[in-house]
Specification:
This protein has 485 residues and is an alpha+beta fold. Helices cover 41% and strands 20% of the residues. The chain has 17 helices and 17 strands.
């Protein structure tokens, strides 16, 4: 019965209206809205394959009157209308709940497929879990409240930085956001992407950015600035933290439409800070890798290019066979590179952020960037709680439809969390809604045996009474019907 909460948000957003309208002039007879509702509810409460969702459809008080074959057939239709749906969903969220899009967070993840052979879409690459399976890439934009805004899928061999402009471009063109500040990590920060955001419109910078910036990968001048004690202000409240900033003109490399590379100058604020806790964390993480590096230098025959990953950069004189990845015997034996370790250790605990927002305070820059953790948390929820993988479909349009259902379930989850004051994790909400269940006690009387702080909070936020101990079947159907209004 807990799925009533999902029904409520689904219908508040008018998703039933969209799917009914989009199937009106199609030549199939099955109810795509009913199929999508089943897929979303099951993704939320009992994630798994489409077949599993179909087999469990009797868990709910719904008339899911379609076949398993209809479910698979509908996936092609859902893929076809995916981009149009996302625009509709954004407009509905903005109208019903309001959207905070002055700051947009952007990040990329990937999803592996447990298959042997890659294809045109599922390409071999290193997944975020360090698995060398065929993957697809996902670029996701999220608003300042942590509610998903827009996503796109890319072939698995697409590098992170190349996903940025298609996703942000779609948001800029079709999401009525006005001027935005895009927040992303250093994998996105290229001259082309910065120049794209800073494109001029009526003499003004159209969009801004807050990006993390590599200290170790910076210029000699930048590294000297970071390590110099001059200009740092220690916090009165925290002696283990210091910060400084400067406004500087920086040259970036930009690719013209002709393919020619040119230098452009951007004026940006560079915020640098050091925190003892981050320094200690960096040292601890490196120590684990160094143990492997010592062994690699002493016993190179035990390793390959794949198994020496992470440690190889601390060992000199390593050469790998390009085909097999085996370590080749060379004239000079491998030796541990202590100078490399010492150079890296100098920058432990230091972080840098660059921004187009010259008037933004240093602390505000850091706090704005810190919001990026929510998108990382969103990916964790997608992969964990909603079990986006394993993906049990293989055709590209079916894969697209699978991720669309996951995106909708994720959006409903985030809206539910927002409505309940962001007090409860996705895991606890799913657990709660699954426990709001009932058993047939006598004829058409159903017995409920669960109530909690979370069920009360969700019920209060959505206007659904989850406190009853017994309900007649007719009353249950009335509550569900009310949730669909």
């Amino acid at each position: 019965f807990g799925y009533a909460a999902i029904l409520k948000i689904y219908h508040e957003l008018g998703l039933d209206v969209f799917f009914k309208n989009k199937s009106r002039h199609e030549n199939f007879e099955y109810n795509t809205n009913s199929i999508m509702l089943m897929l979303i509810v099951s993704r939320f409460l009992s994630p798994g394959s489409k077949k599993k969702a179909f087999e469990e459809k009797t868990r709910y008080f719904e008339r899911f009157n379609f076949s398993l074959a209809d479910v698979y057939r509908s996936l092609t239709h859902f893929s076809k209308i995916s981009k149009e749906f996302q625009r509709y969903l954004n407009a509905q969220i903005a109208a019903k709940y309001g959207r905070n899009t002055k700051t947009i967070y952007y990040d990329v993840t990937n999803f592996y497929f447990e298959i042997d052979q890659a294809d045109e879409f599922r390409k071999h690459g290193l997944s975020k879990e360090k698995r060398r399976d065929p993957i697809v890439q996902m670029g996701l934009a999220m608003d300042a409240d942590g509610i998903p805004l827009h996503y796109e899928l890319f072939p698995g061999n697409t590098v992170d930085k190349e996903t940025f402009r298609p996703v942000i471009g779609e948001v800029r063109r079709n999401y009525d956001t006005g001027r935005v500040i895009v927040v992303a990590d250093m994998g996105i920060i290229t001259g082309d992407n910065i120049f794209y955001l800073q494109g001029k419109e009526k003499g003004k910078n159209f969009n801004g950015y807050v990006f993390s910036f590599s200290v170790r990968g910076g210029t000699k001048d930048f590294k000297e600035y970071v390590l110099s004690d001059e200009g740092y202000a220690a916090s009165d409240e925290d002696a283990d933290f210091k910060i400084k900033s400067r406004i500087i003109a920086r040259d970036i490399n930009v690719t013209l439409s002709s393919g020619k590379k040119v230098k452009k100058t951007v004026y940006e604020k560079q915020v640098v800070f050091w925190a003892r806790k981050y320094a200690i964390k960096a040292q601890a993480e490196r120590e684990e890798v160094l143990k492997k590096a010592y062994d690699l230098a002493s016993n190179p025959q035990k390793y390959t290019k794949a198994t020496s990953y992470g440690a190889a950069k601390y060992v000199k004189n390593l050469k790998f066979d390009e085909k097999t990845g085996e370590i080749l015997k060379v004239k000079e034996r491998p030796v541990f590179d202590s100078a490399k370790v010492a150079e890296e250790a100098k920058y432990d605990g230091y972080y840098a952020i660059v921004t187009s927002e010259l008037d933004m305070s240093d602390i505000e820059v850091i706090e704005t960037y810190r919001g990026l953790w929510e998108i990382e948390e969103t990916f964790r929820v997608t992969k964990g709680v909603l079990e986006t993988r394993p993906v049990y479909v293989s055709l590209q349009d079916h894969i697209n439809a699978h991720f669309l259902t996951c995106f909708i379930a994720l959006t409903i989850m985030r809206i539910m969390q927002k409505k309940t004051g962001k007090l409860y994790s996705a895991e606890r909400i799913v657990e709660c809604l699954n426990k709001i269940s009932c058993s047939n006690e006598h004829e058409n009387i159903y017995l409920f045996d669960y109530r909690s702080e979370i069920s009360d909070a969700i019920g209060d936020a959505l206007g659904i009474d989850f406190t009853n101990k017994r309900l007649r079947l007719g009353d249950i159907k009335k509550i569900l019907a009310q949730a669909k209004k």
